[in-house]
Design a protein that fits this description.
By secondary structure, this protein is an alpha/beta fold. The protein folds into 3 domains: about 1-110; about 115-185 and about 250-435, Rossmann fold; about 200-240, no CATH class. It contains 11 helices and 17 strands. The strands form 5 sheets. Strands 14-5-4-15-16-17 form a 6-stranded mixed β-sheet, sandwiched between helices. Helix 1 (about 1-35) crosses helix 2 (about 45-60) and helix 3 (about 135-150) packs antiparallel against helix 7 (about 295-300).
Length: about 450
């Protein structure tokens, strides 16, 4: 009898060990699912238990364990959730010595840490992104990355993402034409008001050409000096800027050195304002501030289209601005958490043109110099930067991008479009671990 009990007991203990492992796996899955439920912090205790039980039952596969009951608790100080389960496993052999059931229990706690992420995606939308399948790959990669960041968030606000697409300029949206942070006129012909308008004397543009013209009260005199010398009246031509509502939404670099800083725009310091421009060098995608509207972010990816020449610096400056200062609305910080701010910069070309330098076709060291100052300022602000160079055209490896990246592990040199997808996946995995494990 003892030998039978011993042999049978070994079988029952093995069954119990297997059942407990399955119990633990299913509790782990239920705890993780509950932690990722956006409303876990506002659920009632009954709602949490129901959610965990339903998820557990959908995953638990063991006929040996019966009468499983669950508890589910939420701890806001973690924050964390704990799902615990108990049940009984009827024995097959040990009943002969009076052991009819094995009570089994386990629990799983998911802690999602005290770290939250704010990530700016700064994405090259220049004309060369149309080549070699790069834009198609970038759209796929960006959507995958957005999905990874969404999954890393247990509750709304754990992860915020902004998106900036750039070429020579950045598109901030034509609906912002009434905003005080847009600058329309600096007194030059290159300003929006100076180059977009109509002259009272037909055929003269921009503004300086227009206002140099006029009409004499006597048709015989065609110049201002001859008209006035003859005692006649000279009426200068007038320049009328177009309505700002006709603006396309494009802005160029701010005045130096605000082009390398994240200073908030202020009407008291005109150099901090963002100069409007009417340019064919403007990406169609509109800048998005920090959000956890994942559908809107994916829609913004769909809107991306290649156009224009390369000015990495303006995209990078707007990416930094989107994480920290107006004109963006920056979500409030919760004192219970620490915050990690990240910029992911992807470009397929070297800098060729900004507001002051370059012709759009050859590399401009002057544009690079402005960006290097900007990168140094971002580094000094303790913002982590991933820099991705997509080099399918045989360009030199960018020393600027290597310097701009936080360290060598944050710089990626890619030689094919397909590598964009795998690289963004690796970055997404690193960012998810940074949030969940810190």
């Amino acid at each position: 009898m003892n030998r039978i009990a011993a042999a049978g007991g070994a079988i029952d203990y093995s069954r119990a060990s297997t059942a407990r492992a399955l119990l633990q796996d299913s509790l782990d899955a239920a705890a993780l699912a509950l932690s990722r439920e956006p409303t876990v912090d506002t659920m009632t205790a009954t709602q949490r238990k129901t959610f965990a039980t339903n998820y557990f039952n959908a995953n638990f596969q063991s006929a040996d364990l019966t009468s499983v009951t669950l508890t589910a608790t939420y701890d806001s100080s973690g924050p964390s959730v704990t799902v615990a389960g108990t049940g009984n496993m009827p024995t097959d052999f040990l009943g002969i010595i009076g052991v009819n059931n094995f009570p089994l229990s386990a629990s799983s706690t998911t802690v999602w840490g005290e770290s939250r992420l704010r990530v700016a995606l700064v994405l090259d939308n220049t004309g060369s992104m149309a080549d070699d399948g790069k834009m198609t790959a970038l759209k796929t990669a960006t959507k995958n990355l957005i999905s990874q960041l969404q999954n890393a968030a247990s509750v709304n606000g754990d992860v915020y993402v902004s998106m900036v697409t750039f070429s020579k300029d950045v598109n901030v949206g034509s609906s912002n034409y009434t905003k005080s942070w847009i600058r329309w006129d600096d007194g030059t012909d290159s300003s929006w008001d100076g180059s977009n308008g109509s002259c009272s004397k037909s055929g003269y543009s921009p503004r300086s050409s227009c206002v140099a013209q006029g009409t004499c009260s006597s048709w015989f005199y065609t110049s201002k000096s001859s008209c006035q010398s003859a005692g006649k009246t000279w009426t200068a031509a007038t320049w009328t800027p177009d309505a700002h509502s006709t603006w396309s939404g494009c802005v160029e670099d701010r005045d130096q050195d605000y082009d390398t800083k994240n200073t908030a725009p202020s009407t008291s310091t005109t150099g901090t304002l963002f100069p409007a421009e009417e340019s064919s060098n403007c990406p169609p995608g509109v800048v998005m501030g920090l959000t956890y509207d994942w559908s809107a972010l994916n829609n913004a990816v769909d809107a991306m289209s290649p156009n224009g020449t390369t000015n990495q610096a303006i995209g990078l400056q707007w990416g930094w601005q989107s994480l920290t200062k107006s004109p963006f609305t920056i979500p409030a910080f919760d004192s219970k958490y620490t915050y990690k701010t990240i910029i992911v910069l992807l470009t397929d070309g070297l800098n060729t043109q900004d507001r002051w330098y370059g012709n759009g076709s050859t590399v401009s060291t002057q544009v690079d110099a402005r960006e290097q100052i900007l990168c140094d300022n971002i580094t000094n602000a303790s913002i982590e930067v991933y820099a991705v160079q997509v080099n399918t055209g045989g360009d030199p490896t960018s020393t600027l991008l290597q310097n701009c990246a936080t360290d060598s592990s944050h710089f990626f040199l890619l030689t094919s479009a397909s590598q964009i997808v795998t690289t963004f996946n690796a970055i997404g995995t690193a960012l998810s671990e940074l949030r969940l494990k810190s």
